[in-house]
Design brief:
Strand order of the largest sheet of chain A: 1-2
Oligomer: heterodimer
Number of strands of chain B: 0
Helix content of chain B: over 70%
Distance between the termini of chain B: 56 Å
Number of helices of chain B: 3
Number of strands of chain A: 2
Radius of gyration of chain B: 17 Å
Structural class of chain A: mainly alpha
Strand content of chain A: under 5%
Number of helices of chain A: 11
Order of helices and strands of chain B: HHH
Low-confidence stretches of chain B: none
Distance between the termini of chain A: 53 Å
Shape of chain B: elongated
Low-confidence stretches of chain A: none
Mean pLDDT of chain A: 86
Helix content of chain A: 55-70%
Structural class of chain B: mainly alpha
Order of helices and strands of chain A: HHHHHHHHHEEHH
Mean pLDDT of chain B: 89
Chain lengths: 270, 89
């Protein structure tokens, strides 16, 4: 009873505060002004990130090291969960187990299966679109990877895990895709350093565009447009690589978590 | 003098959605049935996602909705399915 009264009073207070339209301040901080003025500044290309999307250019160009550390943390989390489920023959055994039993109805009903087929395609298409347009519209690699991860989850729930495994979505496939994504990120971050061998001296890691105030000759930068298409230097490459990494990491997690319970019981009992 | 055009809809919606998030979080904590608690926490995440949209942060929105409503809720349901469904005490 007391908790209901407290909640009611809190609701009244917060709605009343909202009705006064109290907003802290509408001025931008100097740092935000700097980012907004410079991320697509065609007249002064000293500090530009070649992308109209300020958030993605902050993620991968102005504060690129933070995103690299965040990807490392995610990578370590997935390593930890793969180590917790470290039984090597896991997928083979769960597949053969179900084949030995009689083939009964597995998965959910027919309506759920039909709708899951539709939404699977929609979710995958949307996530790829968000990843590829990360430098133009809100979104980017990590967001697209998390959206993608919902699709195999739905497939495991509506069809069975064995069905999804038959289609080739196994632990080793996901590990291979994730390693590809991580190596691509590391390579793109270190390519400016490799160009020292070609005689460029003003190079930094995670460098997107040339810096005219650095030692000349500076690294010439990644291509910004391909005809009418606006690539944004490293941003599109980083977004695609991060999408592969995050999507396969989350999918790996669900493949490992949905191993059946009696499989583990039998394993522990031996 | 009240200004001629006074439209606090953004702040009212923000206050409403965040209060709904608080209420749903409270009910998720005191709920005994853990499956209902997982669904209530997903509802709280939806209220937060609405607040992120009102604060004009679409990048966070795209990451928050699948993780909090999809991945986190399914993780909780997996954990509940391997232990018991009703909390004691």
């Amino acid at each position: 009873m007391a908790s209901t009264i407290v909640l009611f009073v809190l609701t009244l207070v917060s709605v009343a505060l909202g009705a006064t339209a109290f907003t802290p301040s509408l001025d931008l901080r100097p740092l935000a002004e700097f980012y907004l003025e410079n991320c697509l500044n065609q007249f002064n290309k000293d500090l530009w990130a070649a992308s109209p999307e300020a958030v993605t250019s902050m993620l991968w160009d102005y504060r690129g090291l933070d995103t690299v550390y965040e990807t490392t943390v995610f990578f370590l989390a997935i390593i930890g969960s793969v180590a917790a489920f470290r039984f090597g023959e896991a997928f083979l055994r769960s597949y053969e187990e179900s084949k030995r039993k009689q083939r009964r109805e597995e998965g959910l009903s027919l309506i759920v299966k039909v709708i899951t087929r539709l939404t699977f395609v929609l979710i995958v298409a949307l996530s790829i679109a968000i990843a590829l347009h990360g430098h133009l519209t809100p979104g980017g690699g990590f967001q697209a990877g998390s959206i993608f991860a919902v699709a195999p989850l739905l497939a495991i729930a509506a069809f069975s895990r064995r069905f999804v495994e038959e289609f080739g979505l196994t632990k080793n496939t996901c590990l291979a895709i994730r390693t590809t994504g991580l190596i691509t990120i590391a390579l793109i971050a270190l390519i400016p350093l490799l160009s020292i061998a070609l005689g460029f001296t003003g190079v930094f890691i995670i460098q997107n565009q040339p810096k005219p105030w650095a030692l000349q000759p500076s690294f010439p930068g990644f291509p910004v447009y391909l005809g009418p298409i606006w690539l944004a230097g490293t941003l599109i490459l980083f977004n695609v690589a991060e999408f592969l990494t995050v999507a396969s990491g989350f999918t790996l997690l669900f493949i490992l978590l949905s191993l059946p319970e009696d499989f583990f019981r039998r394993l522990m009992g031996k | 003098m009240i200004p001629l055009f006074f439209s606090p809809f953004l702040e009212l919606l923000l206050a409403f959605s965040l209060t709904m998030a608080l209420v749903l979080a409270y009910f998720a904590i005191v709920q005994r049935d853990l499956v209902k608690a997982a669904v209530l926490s997903a509802g709280q995440s939806i209220a937060y996602a609405f607040a992120y949209y009102l604060l004009a942060a679409p990048d966070i929105l795209f990451a928050y909705i699948p993780i909090a409503v999809g991945i986190y809720t399914v993780l909780l349901l997996y954990a509940i399915s391997k232990t018991e469904r009703f909390e004691e005490g």
